[in-house]
Design a protein that fits this description.
The complex is a heterodimer of chains A (48) and B (329). Chain A is α+β, with helices and mostly antiparallel strands. Chain A is 54% helix and 27% strand. Chain A contains one helix and one strand. The model of chain A has no long low-confidence stretch (mean pLDDT 83). Chain B folds into two domains: 4-160, Nucleotide cyclase, GGDEF domain (Alpha-Beta Plaits, 2-Layer Sandwich); 175-329, OB fold (Dihydrolipoamide Acetyltransferase, E2P) (Beta Barrel), CATH 2.40.50. The chains are: A alpha+beta (48), B alpha+beta (329). The interface between A and B is large, with 20 and 61 residues.
């Protein structure tokens, strides 16, 4: 049987983890800016 | 001309390594000259970011015009949108993250050799006298809930000399005849197809030769029955932009405008109506057919409003009536 204390500890750890990740997410979100990006890759070589 | 992945498997390393090295080195130099940042290299693909679309346009123009790339054909995709930046180490460039990167990667996979594609916001921002961005219609991109409008970068035909289009013409004129299971009606594309460009619709292009799009694995009858068994609106979104190749019965045609032609076909088994949007230059081909005659149509799914509409349609003869591919020019 799972004790109430261990469930409470687990929920607390989840809550702390989520709070930490949200904090990181919030700070990265502030870096938002429009940019143009280009992917370039080989299509074919004409020599072969 | 062979795909680079195949070349790497078939040739000794010393025969292709120099090409790949020179390609990456030159692209990196051109990116720096045009105020771009090489963010990532994945094999022989590069992701480059620019603060402004005008700089990205300068880069694409420079790549296409570089004498170092004589004999190379690229696949290019451009996107413009908001990104978030990760920076793991001070010495490293900031890494862009967001939908834009996923979408641009999907567009790059869609581009055939020699083709540059973009999303709608990039096309709207690009203001380049040498190039225009032409809508190819709506496409379902893997992982994106909404259909995305895709644009093709084409040289502004009013200002470009005919030989500017030669790579695209060669592509169109060489590909169709070598496709197995498809017998096309012989005709040759010329610079006139490109001079006719008006507005922002890519009428002259036969997308199969320019794009890597998935082919629908159903006949017209099978697809009609499949749609009947599904929620129609969901089905619409899932199939936008897919290539179909169907044997159907010819119905009629009408001139939509000076540049467009609409043909009507139907599936005999289900009586499903199939509209075909084509460039007016296809008139000479469409005139060959009589009502109820069997034809093979090849096009891109674009609309489900009344029956189904296919864009950029090419028409061929059924296998049993067609000449051998070698007879075509």
């Amino acid at each position: 049987m799972v004790e109430k204390k261990s469930v409470d500890d687990l929920l607390k750890r989840f809550s702390e983890k989520e709070s930490e990740l949200s904090g990181i997410g919030e700070s990265i979100k502030e870096s938002a800016q429009p940019v143009a990006i280009v992917f370039i890759g080989f299509g074919r070589f004409d020599h072969y | 001309m062979v795909d680079s992945t195949i070349i790497k498997q078939q040739l000794a390393p010393e025969r292709w390594l120099g090409y790949v090295f020179k390609f990456i080195q030159t692209v990196s130099q051109l990116a720096r000259f045009t105020r771009g940042t090489v963010v990532k290299r994945i094999g022989d693909e590069l992701l480059i970011s620019f603060d402004y679309v005008s700089d990205a346009e300068s880069f694409i123009t420079a790549v296409n015009g570089s004498i170092h790339f004589d004999g190379y054909q690229f696949k290019l995709a451009a996107d413009y949108s908001e990104v978030y930046h990760f920076q793991f180490e001070e010495a490293l460039e900031k890494d862009p993250y967001g939908n834009i990167v996923d979408r641009c990667a999907r567009l790059a996979k869609m581009a055939g050799p020699g083709v540059t594609l973009s999303n709608a916001s990039y096309a709207a921002e690009a203001n380049n006298r040498e190039a225009v961005y032409l809508s190819l219609g709506k496409f379902k991109l893997k992982g994106f809930a909404d259909v995305q409008e895709v644009f093709l970068r084409a040289y502004n035909s009013a200002e470009a000399p005919d030989n500017y289009h030669q790579p695209l013409l060669d592509l169109l004129n060489s590909s169709a005849s070598s496709d197995t299971g498809y017998r096309y009606i012989a005709r040759k594309f010329s610079p006139a197809y490109f001079r006719d460009l008006k507005g922002y619709i890519a009428r002259p292009f036969l997308l199969r030769e320019l794009l890597n799009v998935p082919k629908l694995p159903f006949s017209a009858s099978q697809f009609y029955k499949h749609l009947q068994s599904l929620n129609a609106q969901k089905a619409d979104h899932d199939y936008y932009g897919m290539l179909v190749e169907w044997e159907v019965s010819f119905g009629s045609m009408s001139n939509f405008s000076d540049h467009d032609l609409t043909g009507y076909c139907f599936d005999e088994e289900t009586d499903w109506h199939i509209s075909l949007h084509m460039p007016s230059s296809m008139l000479e081909v469409v005139r060959l057919f009589k009502r109820r005659e069997k034809i093979v149509v090849r096009g891109i799914i674009q609309d489900f409003n009344v029956g189904i509409t296919l864009n950029y349609v090419d028409i061929a003869l059924p296998e049993d009536k067609a000449p051998a591919p070698s007879a075509a020019p």
